[in-house]
Amino acid sequence: MSQGKTVHFVRHCQTTWNDAVHNRNLTRCDEELKSEAYVDVPLTAFGEEQAMMIKQKILDLNAEVAITSPLKRTIETCIRTYGDRNVVATHHCAEIGDSICDIGTMKEDLVKTYPSIDFSFVPSTVWWYVNEKMKDRLTNPRKCFEWVLQNEDCALGETHCHLHGRIERFHEFLQNRNESNIVVFSHSVFLKQFLFKYFGRPSSQVIQNGEIISYCL
């Protein structure tokens, strides 16, 4: 295990959810955002353009490995910038389980769609956040989607305590990697909390879509 590591943290590029919430001022309980089309939300056309704009910056990092959340918006950002070789997925750096867009895709389907990516660290069962008491019932994305719609606040409800448990596991995951130059593709809330906990970056500081932030671990 390398003692010194440079880790480059990248927030995924713009998604259809980002566009709806930030550009059109919709909330997660607006009827439009109750659509199954927002499950494991995709990049927008502009998000794809953003990926092309940062591609050379990512390549210039010369990272030995890319680590990505298993949510498709991070995977697609990774593939369009870093590529699909030497890419490892882990659910520990997925976004806080909050909205429909944070419901993921089952591992078996991800493996079929992205055969070059290493999903060995992702559980075969539901890997995104579901309430512990509901795990026996919420066994696939469709059931999770229907359950969220039945909730008054349309939220998955991951607590900050649970999130910070994942943050600690991800930090340990990074420490245990042998590589000394790593690029991580993750999400706004997760990165804000992770970077605050381990590097003191103010959690109120916005991380833009496609932004790259580098630290020595």
Automatic annotation (TrEMBL):
SMART domains for this protein: PGAM
SUPFAM superfamilies cross-referenced by the UniProt entry: Phosphoglycerate mutase-like
Pfam families hit by this protein: His_Phos_1
Stored CDD domains: HP_PGM_like (cd07067)
Name the UniProt record assigns to this protein: Phosphoglycerate mutase-like protein
